[in-house]
Each structure stands twice: as C-alpha cells, then as structure tokens.
Amino acid sequence: MAAKYVAAVDQGTTSTRCMIFNHLGQVVSVDQAEHAQIYPEPGWVEHDPLQIWRRTQDVIRGAVEKANVRPGDLAAIGVTNQRETTVVWDKNTGEPSYNAIVWQDTRTKSICDRLAGDGGQDRFRPKTGLPLATYFSGPKIRWILENVEGVSRAAERGEVLFGNMDTWLIWWLTGGPDGGAHVTDVTNASRTLLMDLQTLDWDREILDLMGVPRQMLPHIVSSSDPNPWGTTSVEGPFGEGIPVCGDLGDQQAAAVGQACYDVGDAKNTYGTGSFLILNTGQEIVPSTSGLLTTVAYRMGKQPAVYALEGSIAITGALVQWLRDNLGIIRASSEVEELALEAEDNGGIYFVPAFSGLFAPYWRSDARGVIVGLTGYITKAHIARAALEATGYQTREVLEAMARDSGVKLKTLKVDGGMVHNELLMQFQADVLGVSVVRPKVVETTALGAAYAAGLAVGFWNDLEDLSSNWRIDKTWQPHMTEGRREQLYAGWLKAVERSFGWVD
Q1: DSSP state, 333?
Q2: pLDDT tens digit string along 282-329?
Q3: Contact criterion met (CB below 8 Å) for 165 and 201
Q4: How many CB atoms neighbour CB 314 within 10 A?
Q5: Both ends of the chain: CA-CA distance in Å?
Q6: What pTM did the predictor assign?
Q7: For residue 476, what are the contacts with CB-CB under 8 A and spacing of at least 6?
Q8: Residue 198: exposed, middle, or buried by beta-carbon count in 10 A (0-12, 13-18, 19+)?
Q9: HSE (side-chain half, CA atoms, 13 Å) at 374
C-alpha cells in the first residue's frame, strides 16, 4: 500500500506539536502540548529535556490517532526545532547532564566577552557568519562544561553528547541509548558558532578556542537525506520502521514551507520571537549590518543554499508577557481587541529588550523600556504599542537586509501564530510600505520539515512539486502615508536608543 502522508515533529520554545500532511501539503491532523518555562535567575531560561521528550511522544500519539493513521500510511518523518537551545546528555542512559539552556538565555555573556577580548565580537564571523553572542549554542556548551560537575571529564571520555533539540529528538526517535542516531543538519549546525559555512563541518580552531570536545558533537547531515539516519522502533510512538530523514531549524523550515527557493525570496515568521530569512542562493553573503549569515537548507547531495537572517528576540513573547505578567489580557488572542480600543499608540513605544536586542544591534546591555508615557495612556495603548513593536523591529531587519543584499522587497511572506492578528498585519504592511502575504497553511515550520522528509523518500519529487502547493490566503496592502510612516519610525528609533546601556 502506498504511503499517504508525511509527519513532522515541530519542537518549539513554548510547545511541541506533531502535524501530519498529505501530498498537497494540507494538514490532516495536529496535536500540541506546552512544556514548562524555567527561570532559575534573571536572564536565565531553561527547559526540561525529558519533559519535552514525553510531550513529543504524547503529541505524536495524538496526531496519529486523530488522523487514523495505519501502518504503511506514513512515508517519512521530519523534525524541526527551536534552534540554539542546548542539551548535553549521557549517551548510555539518555539522562540530561543539565536542563536545556534556551536560546533566549543570557548567562553566557561573560564567556562571550572573554572570547571577544581577543578579536572582538565578530571574531568568528568570517567562518561562521555569526557574531559572538549569548544566542548561540557553542557558549552554552562551554557553560555546562565549566559549571556542571563531572561533565567536562565525561565529554573528554566521549560519554556525553551535545545536541540542539533536533538532535535530542532524533536520537530518541531512532532508538536513544539503543543505537539512536546522533546527527544534526546543516541549518542547526550553522547556529552553534562552531561550524564553518564553507566546509559545512565543525571548525577545529573554533572548537579548541571554545573548549568543546569534538567527540560530543553530532554528525552534520543534509536537511533532506535519502539515506535515513534511522527508523522508528516498535516501542516508539510512531510504531516500527518509519524513516527519519528530514531535519531543519525552525526558521529555515518555515522558509522551505513558504517555498522561498529562489534568490531574493524572503519570509518572516512571527512566533515567540520573529525571524526574517532572505534566500541568497549558493552565495555566502557576509553581513555588515548586524544580520546573520546562515544555511537556508541542503537537499540531499545538492550544494547548500544560504541565507541572510534577521533574528528578533521578543515579539509573540511580549503578548504572553502582557497576559502572564501584567494580566491586562486573559488570553493572547484578546490583545487585538484591546489594542483596537485605542485609535493609535498615544505617543508611546514599547521596546521589548527583555534579553537584550538581537538583530541588527546585538546589544546584550539593552533592556526593555516603555517611553512617552503620559496620564492619557491606557492599557489599550500599551497593547497597541506591544503589537507595533513587532512591526518596527521587522522594518529594522528588512532595511539591514536591503543594505547587505541590494534586494529591496516588494512583498513579504508571513507565517506563524501572530499572522492571524489583522491589526498587526495591516500595521506591518503600513510601516514597511510593501504588501504582506499570508499563505493558506500558516504553520509552515512543520510543513517545511515534512517537505524535507518527503523529498528524501520520493513522496514529493522536487522543489517545483512543493512550490505548486503554496497558496495565498490573504494580502494586506499599505495604506499609511509616507510622512506618517517615517514620523512613527523615527520615534521608534529614538525609543530603541533609550534601551541601551541598562546592564553594565
């Protein structure tokens, strides 16, 4: 019996989901579960890796049950993940050496400062495309090696393994301690600060400087691999013998799901943070404007495709903060209704530099500010300013991309949870002065992982096959005058300056 579906595990910052897709790229079923956010100290963010693995098994079973999937129905499995989030574990037991250190975590600032003392923040950028920053996995590994008793010696003996969340889940899906595959794809490896973009391999010099033993690192593979890294076991939630052969970091997966296969194609994903990726083809484009040079994807043995990326730390997380910390909304979906009670932002700006500022500034000394407060301001103005912050930050990244690439976008493809917020999407079009396009399937992260796995086993033939699945759901056109647009944006840039220098 021919397989009907491809499954994707989408392991995100706040939740994990499993989605099953048919040949048209349509969602057949989905199941999702949140996991705990752990904040041991200010600026520290952790997850429990074993809880995430349990949640992953739960959502897989849920999606399989909802789709009424039978043996032979699934052609392959793809994995996509929150990038940079770092796990180190015992290869014989699967027991984590420490909680997963999340991408937002800032505890490695002293390690980054130490490394930057000889060569500056861009010391490793020529090889890795990345600045020295707390965002990336390498310094997080170093922190665990330095601060968790016994891990450094175990790493030298080859007894512990490192992985981002893709590696952790693929290892368990393919057997765990009983022969699980220890792999990561080129997109995730490109976010560690340890991989050379040219060779697509771990860089010996950087490993030595960072103090990371190579034997704890996974094997780097293509995003879509015709030679599966392993198959699921009979005890696993998928059942026996399904090839695991697709792996993409979440933002690269969204670009694949959005059919950004040509040079100049771009997408923006609105999640916990927002991440804008511009396809630069087989050319590695260095950034002089605070962007990241990264791998977009590699399909099989074809050459890698590269991208420029603008990473924004806090967008959807700001709405969650309004809900959980301030209590001015009961559910994230209520923020639009509250914001619409105000005609405009009332003259205030909200810069959500909770973990410093990522692109294009890379300022770990920045912290969140609300500026322009007067007695006139209500919670509706605060809600509106929180949404507008996402639009302004996206414009900053797009302007940096135009400087680096010479490409001026006319249309921005969007996806992720916040694209259902009509007020935000219209403001995004207004403040950019370009059209904003939402596809029929907005959960493009999981779709991209499914595409990578399906391509590997011939469920889909090629990228053209995938492009034909992409459909427009809605387009927003800019309505704001240029004068008003520039006036508002100038105010935002002043507000950003006020966020600098709060941490010594």
Answers
A1: G
A2: 999 998 888 999 999 999 999 999 999 988 988 989 999 999 999 999
A3: no
A4: 26
A5: 64
A6: 0.86
A7: 425, 426, 428, 429, 435, 436
A8: exposed
A9: 6
